[in-house]
Write a structure and sequence with these properties.
The protein has one helix and ten strands. With 136 residues, the chain is an all-beta fold.
């Protein structure tokens, strides 16, 4: 099955393994996520971010996002999901979906690892993927 990221520059695969992609500012080494694009992006070089970190904070989205929500099945029943911040050791804190079947099991400080999450399908059948983290 073909797949693509929701937006270019969010992650890339190295030897088939996806890595979240940030940017290191050339002038002072400061990290940014996502990798800046356009004219600002010229000041950054791509950096593969750590694939494991700690859940820094989170919340549970208990209602469907407002229109224009681009997810699959606007008519399908909505399932609550978690979003949070993940601290990548020695790098940066990133906002992310948190993939879990048990929202009550999430705990601040728990170890998490990078994963891709199916979001929807393009008309040609290509799977559009979100980045996320799941309990390690």
């Amino acid at each position: 099955m073909n797949c693509r990221p929701l937006a270019e520059g969010l992650y890339r695969k190295v030897d088939g393994v996806p890595h979240l992609l940030g940017g290191r500012r050339k002038g002072d080494g400061k990290l940014a996520f996502p990798l800046p694009q356009g004219a600002q992006g010229e000041d950054y070089e791509p950096v593969e971010l750590a694939s494991e970190g700690r859940l820094w904070s989170y919340t549970v989205q208990r209602f469907r996002p407002k229109t224009p929500y681009l997810g699959a099945g606007d008519t399908a029943p909505f399932e609550p999901y978690a979003v949070g911040y993940v601290e990548l050791p020695g790098q940066i804190i990133v906002e992310s979906h948190i993939k879990t079947d048990d929202l009550s099991a999430l705990k601040i400080g728990m170890p998490v690892r990078f994963t891709l999450i199916p979001f929807r399908q393009d008309p040609d059948g290509t799977a559009v993927m979100l980045y996320g983290f799941e309990p390690a």
